[in-house]
Amino acid sequence: xxxxxxxxxxxxxxxxxxxxxxxxxxxxxxxxxxxxxxxxxxxxxxxxxxxxxxxxxxxxxxxxxxxxxxxxxxxxxxxxxxxxxxxxxxxxxxxxxxxxxxxxxxxxxxxxxxxxxxxxxxxxxxxxxxxxxxxxxxxxxxxxxxxxxxxxxxxxxxxxxxxxxxxxxxxxxxxxxxxxxxxxxxxxxxxxxxxxxxxxxxxxxxxxxxxxxxxxxxxxxxxxxxxxxxxxxxxxxxxxxxxxxxxxxxxxxxxxxxxxxxxxxxxxxxxxxxxxxxxxxxxxxxxxxxxxxxxxxxxxxxxxxxxxxxxxxxxxxxxxxxxxxxxxxxxxxxxxxxxxxxxxxxxxxxxxxxxxxxxxxxxxxxxxxxxxxxxxxxxxxxxxxxxxxxxxxxxxxxxxxxxxxxxxxxxxxxxxxxxxxxxxxxxxxxxxxxxxxxxxxxxxxxxxxxxxxxxxxxxxxxxxxxxxxxxxxxxxxxxxxxxx
Length: 484
What we know:
Oligomer: single chain
Order of helices and strands: HHHEEEHEEHEHHEEEHHHEHEEEH
Number of strands: 13
Shape: elongated
């Protein structure tokens, strides 16, 4: 295994602990999260009564994480016996009412399949699709790449053009250099633009236009239900937006702007007016679409890295961000920055990675579409590529996997008696639609073996709470496994 960043781990620990954990559980969580540097592994501690001969990596830490991470797990750690693992998972992986579960568990190091229940059967994966998008954008664009939002001069005198470059996490105010959401702030971009205009001797009234031509085709994917759009699950896609096309950085629900590019341009115009007041500049009301002169860059603002975008996408499962990243992967791959281009880019990158994608049906890249079809085996292979495959750039996705009972979409799970054994240990991407639930991720078992897994339920009873518990119990079985 190879290097894994620990960006913001201690901050996430303190926030989640205040909501959920006792001091004892904090030790559990720190054992799992504080060692997430070094090797892409998440050793930790059982939540519950201590078992005899607890392995060293599952003991509470005596200090916070150190930059040198942890030593490699022993290559001689025993593998779970497939028959014993199947016996345990067949007892937990059961639907609550209608529907079926499929699943695959693999040894991350060797790829050996340890559990297989219809693993090659195509399924609706919900937001597990974002794992495919993560791999695609990390391969096509690169983990350290930043998206640039530029202000260009126009052929029309007195006109500036705010030009989208793929950053949909813009902030309306001052830049937040230590943040992902809002790292590029429109206030600083406006000040830099005023300075550039002043240096050119420009004064008087300035018109602001917006160029969102980087993305092509329908802004809304026809595979999405309009009810989901109205509810704010996603919105029309543009290559620039404030707060992932939400009203504020902290908003996670509710309707989104129908024209995120125009909303961002209006916010920029307001900042430009404020910054230009002392320089003899005023801003004309209204924003229209136009193209700027790419040879005349007045100012620019850089986003957080692609790696940080991917982590935020996986942790919060934001559909808008996922779709924007998919389109950026398409653009970088020489494909149209469209719905179809994003799906084609994901398929292309998976095939180049050696993961068979011919049987997949990709209707979007966020998982909101019911027409998506991907198997549990394909997801397990994707997680294996991230955790222990030969392409080190994929390790950048590891920080984004939600930690059971602690972060992201798993922060309020793994609190029941039957699932607490996985708290702080399981790291997995969730997926939920009306009749669909999924969980794909990785865990180090009690014998020190890194396992990757994917469990997908389809045709389920809407709202049946037992389906989520079935997934969490099954992942917890893997964490506790000394299945010999």
